[in-house]
Amino acid sequence: MPELPEVEILRRELQAQAVGRTVADVCLTGRRPGSFTQTDARAVLVNRPLVAVRRRGKLLVLDFDGGHSLIVHLMMVGQFLLSPPFASEPRDVALTLQFIDGTMLTLGQVDLQYVHLLPTKHVDAWPATQSSLGLVARLGVDPTGPHFTVEALAGLLHGRRGALKLLLMNQSVIAGLGNTYVDEILFNARLSPTRVAGSLSPDEIRRLHAAIAEELARGLALGGSSEMAFVHLDGTPGRYQDAFRVNQRKGQPCPVCGATIERLKVGGRGTYWCPQCQQSA
Ligand SMILES: [Zn+2]
Fold first, then answer.
1. Which tens digit of pLDDT belongs to each residue from 155-190?
2. Three-state DSSP class for residue 181
3. What CATH code is carried by the domain that includes residue 10?
4. Structural domain boundaries enclosing 38
5. Which residues pair with 28 in a beta bridge?
6. What's the 228 CA to ligand 1 centre distance in angstroms?
7. Is residue 280 part of a domain?
8. Which of 17, 91, 196, 202 is the most exposed place for a label (fewest CB within 10 A)?
9. Is 46 a domain residue?
């Protein structure tokens, strides 16, 4: 699934290539209806320029002139593509923004229930009651932001009895990390995914903090991870998956110690790790 680096890459590309374009039409073609209709979207977006694209955890927020925003969660395999030309043909398109200059932004491979249309002023408090993924109002700290210090991470871990991996994936604690990056982060930090989160020493917390920054930066620098369906706005894949050290390497030798990479389930999530490098004590 797209995680912080992939969503941030799309944010930057949308900001650079789509912002400033004015909507001529909106088409909803998802197989199932979402929380708003095509008529709703046309009423508030047509003839409005896209003015900004923001990221909140793994969510993209597209702000339009006139005071409305689209919030999008790409889920497992969602893709934004900007044409023309499409480097890869859009598949299973749920929403299309046609711009007056002839370009077209499509959102594919995501159910419309993960797309929301609401007044921009309500985005940060959204949604007050709905219990779905990545609620903006309940998102935790952004691990690339200024508030994510070693001390802040220590505070988030303190007293937590659950598995370290699950805490790192909890969007209401840290917003933007998911299954793929957390496995690489924990390998980098030499920490077991099953460690009790609250049991880390100060030195281990410093290692974990550094590993989070390193792996997110590596993912960004390599253009994101396309081990599933992530592509850039022009359809090209990223290369972080080629740099995986544990993900999808079950049975292969650890690149550091040579022991065999194993796969286990942590909270139901497939987890790759090196039992020799990653301390479980
Ligand atoms: Zn190892």
1. 999 999 999 999 999 999 999 999 999 999 999 999
2. helix
3. 3.20.190.10
4. 4-138
5. 95
6. 25
7. no
8. 202
9. yes
